[in-house]
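Lecture 7 notes. Example A: sequence first, then its structure tokens.
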Amino acid sequence: MELVSGIEDVLAERSYALLLQVVTGHRQEIELYRHWWGESRIDGAFLVDLHYSDPRVPEIERLGMPVVVMGHPSESGSLSAVWSDDGEAVRETVAYLVALGHRRVARVAGLPELVHTAVRDQAFADAARAWPRRSPSTPTTPARRARGRRGGCSP
């Protein structure tokens, strides 16, 4: 909610409003952009929850609609992107927990098709491999779930 609040604060200073619309999928979202942009109802958009080969990116590029992608620039095409280093945040968190003496750390992840989930998964796996091992029988054990990913590791 801090992200939405921050965006609203900046837009309000310029007499703009933030419109949020819940959609069921990318097709509906693309149609909504076409409709709103075609009728000059919006001045631009924020694109969130970026997927690999996200179909929204080329469609928005074709529309010529101003968009800021809230995600990794590797998948944002020619669109402007802002992002935080999700991988570094995960690595720092794991290092902190290890420094506190934690011996087991689990990660509950989001949807596997999201770019930021993959970045975080890789960073978690890398951090787990970098832990000094006290026992060779404590491997990293990621387990896929129907609604996301769950992984755990022990030093």
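Example B, a different protein, same format:
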Amino acid sequence: MNTLEFLAQLNDSEKGWGLWIDRENRDEHHVGQYAFENDRLPKAFVHVASLEHLAHLRQKYILDNNASAKSESVLGQEWAKQFLSQWQPQ
């Protein structure tokens, strides 16, 4: 599953989990717990946000655009594309 597909389907998450994306290839990502991952990942992977925060952003986008005739999965794809197009590695 590439990063876009993962984000489009992200609905909820437990606290303490985050998403890292390879700054050289946005299709490559890693999901892990903060306590274990920060020092273990290759330097090309950049922390994006907590899964909890990303799931909230996705759900908010779907709720805000619920009046359209689009399905939740289509809205999720739209949000993921928009998020990835605006995301820049720090």
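Note on Example B: The first helix runs from residue 3 to 9. The longest strand covers residues 25-33.
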